[in-house]
Design goal:
The complex is a heterotetramer of chains A (about 300), B (about 325), C (about 300) and D (about 500). Chain A has about 300 residues and is mainly alpha-helical. Helix content of chain A is about 75%, strand content about 0%. Chain A has two domains: about 70 residues, no CATH class; about 220 residues, MetI-like fold (Orthogonal Bundle). Chain A starts with a helix and ends in a 7-residue tail after the last helix. In chain B, the strands form two sheets. An eight-stranded mixed β-sheet of chain B has the order 6-7-8-3-9-10-12-11, sandwiched between helices. Chain B has a four-stranded antiparallel β-sheet with strand order 2-1-4-5, with helices on one face.
Chain lengths: ~300, ~325, ~300, ~500
């Protein structure tokens, strides 16, 4: 991948980011004034007005926008109203949790799907294949939040072997990871299975077989390579989705990630938090996309990144 | 002499811009009279298709003019263009691609009528469709089928029937049989010849197969790298081609005359077709020509009568000598 | 070139044979059969409820959180009762009409809008096409949840807004596919032919491009139906979608969360319903894709032997 | 059955391997206590303790006020001040406890209190205490000597000591220009760490002036779902969980305590048909309060007839509770209709998601009850911000007739904290304008003793019987689940403070 290519993409990403941040600026402000939320209901009108002035909300939207744009250019994301500290600090505490959660779930899903998918494809039409098919369809269709609740009910409330929620050692990650794991796993098994079956029927594999290569090698070198490409693409898309936080799952488990932060931020009209999270997520997505492209190129030399 | 049906003058079609555009069609002039069939031959990539598409107004002309029945094709717009479409129709090369697979035959055939309301009233579409199908050798019940239910030759008949719906005066046939099996080719060519006679159609018949061209054409035109390099009556071209390229093409055609078999040596051209973006200087054929001399590098030969063969125009510096040697 | 024309020659029987063939193809996929049956049951249930044949749905605080599988009760109570004593089964059916209705309307909206925009972008290109595609890039570049959050906060979480937000966030996918397909179809010879007959842009778009693009778009839509359903459930679960007293499966799970340890069935059954229905849509979409792909027909037909 | 065992075995195996690194203690170590609440504190600044989420962590754990209110009768009892007296109508004198130090080593004295009072009223800081409890009152504190403090007020304030119970005293080192996230107080616990999004950790303060707490380490965590909070006590993840929903609060470990909140529906009495008193009465008669108790509301909740609970000074015990009489409601509506009142107009019920457990279920039930009585009511559940827009003035002139779900908290123990804002013409949440009531409330606020009590009782009666701009529901209870081995019984103040120092293991 050439450096100029990277620059070109970065430039486009920066433009898109600017557009998004600008729309986010106006959108969050349209969601309503935070003042009522931050003052006791018994506070006087004068106190409300004073807070508006203090937050600069009394000025015209345009004036606020220019101030904000200037701060953005100097990467100043402002102070979180709720947390009462720099918004970016708060975001950067939550982001690694989300990324780790998403990465663990996706990597596990990817590995499991490659394994399951190829087993199903090799046994195409048989009992194993049908079983895998049903399982993966179910996994791809199960609502993650529901899975989370049922997990809590079963493993935490009934058997008491896993914590209900929260954050801490590895054991706290089991249920959230399992919930996020389901859908990517189901989707990827379908894809791996489908493209492997196709590849196994394709001429080049027959050729390879005719040349006397052992069956195992045929399957895993040719067909797998063929199946990896779409699997990587889909995983990349999913990774981009997860970067925005396994929103619902994070809420279910009280997991301190960016998705929960963002939802809370909007609920609490914490403009700075919302904007900083959007920014951070967008940057992460940009790098994920680059990473996927590089992976793509390394799997299939025919794909030239351009 | 009456005014020709189609008069093409200095027509060019270039692709791309900047210093070296691709000159797909470069300064081409020719005429087609009413009822006349002009054969156009050349290798693939020589600009035949671009010429056809320009005439059909599927792409803009870069310069020059083409006048059909007094109407300037290159400048026609709006209703003038719409009228023009009626007079000039096309049979495409690939009958699998040129028929929308999702439309039933009756809709396919009547599509032009739908686009030119007033020509045939809707109530008579069915009747006319059946008539057309029968005239191209298909049956009435075929009207209710989809293109996928037909063989290649049948599809091309459908294509021809559809081209005739508007009763055009000029039919452009862009390699109409090259996608078909040899056994079917003759049937379709014969059909075209028959229709031409019946309807007094003028045709521009494009092909790379000389045998087919010979069968239907009155006159023949040879194209190389966007230029016409030789043109003349069928007899002259086939019996006494003056341009080395034409000769090379002819040598590949099996002769119907058994006496001549074995006497003619097959000329195999060396090298590939040069890039039309950067054609050779002087004569464009010189890079593959066994007769090329220095003059060919320096001067571009004009399309002029160079031999005694009647009506034959050749763009070759060495055409006269060739003729002389033959004698 | 495979020419299956002989299979269908007599024109009159074409259509009825096609239906027969579809039935055969469906029978070749037992999972698709199961999916079709499930969806049929759901649709029938919705219809029965629409004709108010399901009986009493009144709040009855005495029957609050009645446990399921008590077969001594009237059959509507076999799945238990909800926190306000309403039969859970009836609630599930009412929620089904919201959930599935929203999914259908959303998919239809984004299908129509996305196809039109994509076809326009692909056929005409130029500035309009570019603008459309760049907007798509931006929407696609950011998490759907975020776009949805904004939309719903801005306009309030009503059913109409939910549909709009979901449709807008799904639309870029349709636009991209429609555009790519159009770019391909646009170059086909039959489009040139239509132009030579004097067909203008509108004519070509309407009679040639749209019908050619449609099957792909329909396949995409059938896959999306499942996706939208899951997404709506998620939003409703977060309190951003359907609001009480309306009811959707996602909202039922959310409300059931408060009864996780006291009345598990309140959240369990609606989640199960989401899963079954989503799965059915997925399976049928899969089947539909194979049916529409001649190179894969054998998968459905050969199984019968 | 077999299947379940298999799943169990499988999950056990899975858990064993995972639990190798971190296991959940089935029983907490005796020196540690974990409390789970609903929300993360918004702030840990001593001047923000008006918010229950903040005050639970701070009040009487990290920071203390000059006085406390007795959970038994609401009377003022000593804390950091040992005694107090009213010098004249505008001046109060407090004697301060000596030998007290803040967690940061600073000495507690009159100047520290002066700084805290000043800070709480600084408009730039917008402190909760300054804007709610002390609203409309100017305090001027002076240090006479380290152990004596004078507080002057701009208007007569007969209940100043009550109000001082809300003002926590932070270290003089607390920044004057910004809220702090690391408060230092005089309380039995000091802050170890606030890990945003996760927990607040406390440890016993060696230099505390009073009795040492039994449990040295306390952690406060938060979970939004009541079912999860309840389960956490069972699993041993927490020892005390607050705000358990009624459906979960049924075991012997669950303690219900009145939390000083009164739930009600505020009727917008300015818009037809609700501007007709008969319609508002019909609305009250249509609600089956008995049916709601023990199902959607906890069985210990009390049917309310006024907006403050009985523990509040000024509560009127003689107001009759609304009976459930849908027939009478119907006839009242019919009578109103006969007089041309547009009783068929759609009335919106605005609810707030999660205002109390089962808030949306309660409104769904009430909507059905209203419909049975012939009301045309539509329910709309709102998230806090839009709900506040409906709660607070200014309102749109041509708004729909509406009923708003709300609850009123009065932990301070005096009716003056409830009435003025909600029922006077100038009040920012008031739907009535009644000059007589305005005067009554104003007079009551200035009066003392029995006179004060009598006037407030009159005001409550007038609101309940003459204006009827509310449909009072219940005096609410909070349910706390306490682990079996923990010795703790929540009292009436548990909604606003977790008295960690009184908790011990059995």
């Amino acid at each position: 991948m050439s450096f100029t290519y990277f620059l070109k993409r970065a430039a486009f990403a920066a433009l898109a980011l600017a557009a998004l941040m600008t729309s986010a600026f106006f959108l969050v402000r349209l969601t309503g004034d935070p003042v009522n939320l931050y003052l006791p209901v018994d506070a006087s009108d004068a106190a409300r007005e004073a807070m508006r002035v203090r937050l600069g909300l009394d000025r015209s939207l345009l004036a606020q926008f220019f101030d904000w744009a200037w701060d953005m250019l100097s990467l100043d994301f402002g102070i979180s109203l709720w947390h009462n500290r720099p918004a970016m600090d708060v975001v950067l505490e939550a982001l690694p949790n989300t990324l780790a959660l998403g990465a663990i779930a996706l990597v596990l899903a990817f590995i499991a799907a490659i394994g399951m998918g190829s087993i199903a494809a090799v046994n195409s039409g048989g009992w194993i294949d049908r079983g895998v098919n049903v399982l993966s369809q179910a996994a791809a269709s199960v609502p993650d939040f529901w899975l989370g609740l049922m997990g809590v009910l079963l493993f935490a409330v009934t058997f008491r072997i896993l914590p209900t929620s929260g954050f801490g050692g590895p054991i706290y990650w089991v249920l959230p990871v399992a919930c996020l794991f389901a859908r990517p796993f189901g989707t990827l098994v379908q894809i791996v299975r489908g493209s492997m079956i196709e590849a196994l029927n394709a001429t080049f594999v027959r050729t390879a077989r005719a040349k006397g290569a052992r069956d195992g090698r045929v399957t895993f070198v040719h067909a797998l390579r063929n199946a990896l490409l779409p699997a990587v693409t889909v995983t990349g898309d999913l990774a981009a989705q997860f970067a925005g936080g396994g929103g619902v799952v994070e809420v279910v488990f009280g997991f301190p990630g960016i998705g929960k932060l963002l939802i809370d931020g909007i609920l609490k009209r914490d403009f700075a938090i919302v904007q900083a999270s959007i920014f951070a997520v967008a940057v992460v997505i940009f790098f994920i996309n680059i990473l996927v492209d590089m992976l793509y190129a390394s799997i299939d030399p025919r794909v030239r990144v351009e | 002499m009456t005014e020709p049906l189609l008069k093409v003058q200095n027509l060019s079609r270039h692709f791309g811009s900047g210093a070296t555009p691709v000159r797909a069609v470069d300064d081409v002039s020719f005429e087609i009279a009413r009822g006349e069939t002009l054969g156009l031959v050349g290798e693939s990539g020589c600009g035949k298709t671009s010429l056809v598409r320009t005439l059909l107004k599927l792409g803009p002309a870069t310069s020059g003019s083409a006048v059909l029945d007094g109407v300037e094709i290159t400048k026609a717009r709006g209703s003038e263009l719409h009228e023009l479409r009626r007079n000039m129709q096309v049979v495409f090369q690939d009958p699998y691609q040129s028929l929308n697979p999702r439309m039933r035959v009756d809709r396919l055939i009547s599509e032009p009528w739908a686009l030119h309301p007033g020509l045939v009233p809707k109530a008579r579409w069915r009747e006319e469709t059946v008539k057309l199908l029968e005239s191209v050798g298909l049956r009435a019940e075929h009207a209710d089928r989809y293109p996928s239910e037909f063989s290649g030759g049948q599809r091309q008949r459908l294509g021809i029937a559809r081209a005739l719906t508007l009763n055009p005066t000029l039919l452009v046939c862009d390699e109409p049989v090259s996608a078909l099996d040899v056994s079917v080719q003759a049937q379709v060519v014969n059909l075209l010849a028959k229709l031409r006679r019946e309807r007094n159609l003028a045709m521009l018949f494009v092909a790379h197969d000389l045998a087919v061209v010979r069968h239907v054409s009155d006159r023949v035109m040879v194209m190389y790298l966007g230029k016409i390099i030789e043109t003349g009556p069928k007899q002259s071209i086939f019996s006494a081609p003056a341009h080395p390229y034409t000769q090379a093409l002819m040598s590949a055609v099996p002769t119907p005359d058994p006496r001549l078999r074995g006497h003619r040596k097959r000329i195999v051209l060396q090298g590939d077709l040069p890039s039309p973006a950067n054609p050779p200087s002087g004569c464009r054929f010189r890079t593959r020509c066994w007769k090329a001399t220095s003059i060919c590098t320096e001067q571009e030969p004009a399309l002029t009568a160079r031999t005694a063969a009647p009506g034959l125009l050749t763009a070759c510096h060495h055409a006269d000598t060739e003729f002389a040697r033959r004698l | 070139m495979t020419d299956r024309s002989t299979e269908f020659l007599p024109a009159r029987e074409h259509r009825s044979r096609r239906i027969l063939w579809l039935a055969r193809a469906l029978a070749g996929d037992p999972m698709a059969v199961a999916a079709a049956i499930w969806l049929l049951i759901v649709v029938l249930a919705i219809l029965t409820d629409a004709m108010s044949l399901l009986g009493d749905n009144r709040i009855s605080l005495k029957a609050r959180n009645l446990p399921p599988f008590d077969f001594g009760q009237p059959w509507t109570l076999w799945l238990g009762a909800d926190a306000l004593g309403r039969p859970l089964l009836v609630r599930l059916v009412q929620a089904a009409s919201t959930t599935i209705g929203i999914a259908l309307v959303t998919v239809l909206t984004s299908l129509i809008g996305g196809t039109l925009l994509g076809v326009v972008a692909g056929y005409f290109g130029g500035i309009i096409g570019n603008v459309i595609m760049r907007i798509c890039d931006i929407i696609l570049g950011f998490p759907t949840l975020l776009v949805a959050l904004f939309g719903l906060y801005l306009f309030g979480p009503s059913v109409g807004n939910l549909v709009i937000v979901l449709a807008v966030t799904r639309m870029p996918a349709y636009i991209r596919v429609a555009r790519a397909e159009t770019l391909e179809v646009r170059e086909r010879l039959f489009v040139d032919a239509a132009r030579v007959f004097g067909g203008g842009s509108t004519w070509i778009l309407r009679t040639h491009i749209l019908p050619s693009v449609a099957p792909t778009m329909l396949t995409l839509a059938s896959v999306n139906l499942a996706m939208v359903m899951l997404f709506e459930s998620g939003l409703s679960y977060l309190g951003l979608g359907i609001q009480p007293p309306s009811v959707s499966w996602g909202l039922m799970v959310a409300q059931g969360q408060g009864y996780l340890s006291s009345a598990w069935w309140l959240g369990f059954f609606p989640g199960l319903a989401i899963m079954f229905t989503t799965m059915s849509f997925n399976l049928l979409a899969n089947w539909f894709r194979i049916v529409n792909d001649p190179s894969q027909h054998w998968r459905l037909l050969s199984r019968r032997r | 059955m077999k299947k379940i065992t298999a799943i169990h075995a499988l999950s056990m195996g899975l858990a064993m391997s995972l639990a190798a690194s971190v296991a959940i203690p089935a029983r907490a170590a005796p020196d540690k206590l974990t409390v789970v609440v609903t929300d993360e504190p918004k702030s840990l600044d001593p001047c923000d303790t008006d918010l229950s989420g903040n005050s639970r962590i701070l009040h009487n754990n990290i920071t203390e006020a000059l006085v406390n209110l007795s959970p038994k009768d609401g009377s003022v009892v000593p804390s950091l001040a040992t005694s107090w007296r009213q010098v004249d109508s505008l001046t109060w004198e407090f004697k301060l406890r000596e030998g007290v130090t803040f967690h940061d080593g600073k000495a507690f004295d009159a100047t520290a209190v002066v700084a805290a009072v000043k800070r709480a009223q600084d408009p730039a800081l917008a402190c909760e205490v300054g804007q709610a409890t002390l609203k409309g009152l100017k305090l001027n504190a002076e240090a006479v000597n380290p152990a004596t403090l004078l507080i002057k007020t701009d208007v007569a304030e007969p209940i100043l000591p009550n109000k001082m119970s809300a003002l926590d005293i932070g270290s003089p080192a607390t920044p004057g220009d910004a809220k702090t996230r690391t408060p230092a107080g005089t309380g039995p616990y000091k802050l170890v760490a606030w890990t945003p999004g996760q927990s607040v950790g406390l440890v016993a303060y060696e230099g505390y002036w009073g009795d040492k707490p039994a449990i040295p380490n306390a952690t406060i965590i938060w979970r939004a779902e009541s079912a999860v909070r309840a389960a956490m006590v069972d699993t041993g993840e927490a020892q005390i969980a607050y705000e358990i929903a009624p459906q979960d609060g049924t075991t012997g470990q669950d303690h219900a305590f009145p939390n000083a909140e009164t739930s009600l529906l505020r009727i917008d009495a300015q818009i037809a048909p609700l501007n007709d008193k008969r319609v508002r009465e019909a609305l009250n008669l249509a609600i089956d309060r008995d049916g709601l108790i023990g199902t959607i509301f906890h069985k210990d909740a009390q049917k309310a007839m006024q907006v403050v609970p009985p523990s509040v000074f000024g509560f009127n015990p003689d107001i009759p509770v609304w009976t459930y009489d849908p027939e009478k409601a119907k006839s009242l509506l019919a009578a109103a209709k006969a007089d041309g009142v547009p009783v068929d107009n759609e009335i919106v019920i605005y609810g707030r998601i999660g205002i109390y457990p089962n808030s949306s279920e309660s409104l769904e039930a009430i909507q059905a009850m209203l419909a049975d009585a012939g009301f045309n009511a539509r329910l709309e559940m709102l998230e806090t911000s839009p709900w506040l827009k409906r709660l607070l003035k200014p309102w749109n002139k041509d708004r729909q007739p509406s009923i708003l779900q709300t609850q009123i908290d009065n932990a301070e123990g005096d009716a003056v904290f409830t009435l003025p804002n909600r029922f006077t013409t100038d009040g920012n949440q008031s739907t009535i304008t009644d000059a007589g009531l305005d005067k009554l409330i104003a007079d009551a606020a200035k009066a003392t003793g029995d006179e004060r009590k009598k006037l407030f009782q009159q005001a409550f009666k007038y609101i309940a019987i003459d204006t009827v701009n509310i449909a009072p529901l219940f005096h609410m209870v909070t349910i706390a689940r306490v682990a079996k081995d923990v010795n703790y019984t929540p009292d009436v103040q548990a909604g606003n403070e977790i008295k960690l120092k009184s908790i011990s293991y059995r």
